[in-house]
C-alpha cells in the first residue's frame, strides 16, 4: 500500500510554532514513528507553502497511490483550486487537522475541501495523521 502525506503552509514549522496548538514535535520525527509503526505501508511525504505546488503533487500521485492524508493548513478554508484537484483525481483523500478547528476562529469552521474528501479527522494532534492512514487500512 502506498500512502502520500501532504502538508500545506506553515506545517514545516511544526515543533517550533504555536506549541500550545501544534505540539512540540517536528513532523519529521513523527513521520519516522509512523513508518516504524507501519513497515508494510510505503509512506511518502510532501510539504509546500505554495498552493500550486500542492495541486501539482495531487495531480502527480492522484492516479497511482492508494490514499492521501492531507493537511492543507489555511488553504483548507480558502482553496477552491485544491478542492477541484481532489475531486479530479482517483486516489481518495482524507483531510486531517492537528487542532480541533471547531474550537478555534470562526473562519476555520468551514472546509472548502471536505466535500471532495472521503472523510475529515480533526483535533487529535499529530495522531490525526495516524488515524487518517489507518482509515485506508480498514476500508
TrEMBL record:
A UniProt-annotated Pfam family: DHquinase_II
Keyword field contains Ribosomal protein: no
Biological or metabolic pathway of the protein: Metabolic intermediate biosynthesis; chorismate biosynthesis; chorismate from D-erythrose 4-phosphate and phosphoenolpyruvate: step 3/7
Keyword Amino-acid biosynthesis (UniProt): yes
UniProt site (Transition state stabilizer): 17
Protein name according to UniProt: 3-dehydroquinate dehydratase
Family (UniProt): Belongs to the type-II 3-dehydroquinase family.
Single biological process term from Gene Ontology: amino acid biosynthetic process
Superkingdom, natural source: Bacteria
Gene label: aroQ
Listed NCBIfam families: aroQ (TIGR01088), PRK05395.1-2 (NF003805), PRK05395.1-3 (NF003806), PRK05395.1-4 (NF003807)
Enzyme Commission identifier(s): 4.2.1.10
Residues reported in the UniProt entry to bind substrate: 71, 77, 84, 98-99, 108
Molecular function in Gene Ontology: 3-dehydroquinate dehydratase activity
Active site positions: 22, 97
Chemical reaction(s) catalysed: 3-dehydroquinate = 3-dehydroshikimate + H2O
Root EC class: lyase
Amino acid at each position: 500500500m502506498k500512502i502520500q502525506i501532504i502538508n500545506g503552509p506553515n506545517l514545516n514549522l511544526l515543533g517550533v510554532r504555536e506549541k500550545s496548538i501544534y505540539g512540540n514535535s517536528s513532523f519529521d520525527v513523527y513521520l519516522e514513528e509512523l513508518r516504524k509503526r507501519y513497515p508494510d505501508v510505503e509512506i511518502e511525504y510532501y510539504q509546500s507553502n505554495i498552493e500550486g505546488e500542492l495541486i501539482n503533487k495531487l495531480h502527480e500521485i492522484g492516479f497511482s497511490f492508494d490514499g492521501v492524508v492531507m493537511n492543507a493548513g489555511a488553504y483548507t478554508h480558502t482553496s477552491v483550486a485544491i478542492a477541484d484537484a481532489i475531486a479530479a483525481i482517483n486516489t481518495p483523500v482524507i483531510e486531517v487537522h492537528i487542532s480541533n478547528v471547531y474550537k478555534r476562529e470562526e473562519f476555520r469552521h468551514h472546509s472548502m475541501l471536505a466535500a471532495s474528501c472521503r472523510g475529515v479527522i480533526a483535533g487529535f494532534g499529530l495522531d490525526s495523521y495516524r488515524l487518517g492512514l489507518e482509515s485506508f487500512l480498514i476500508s
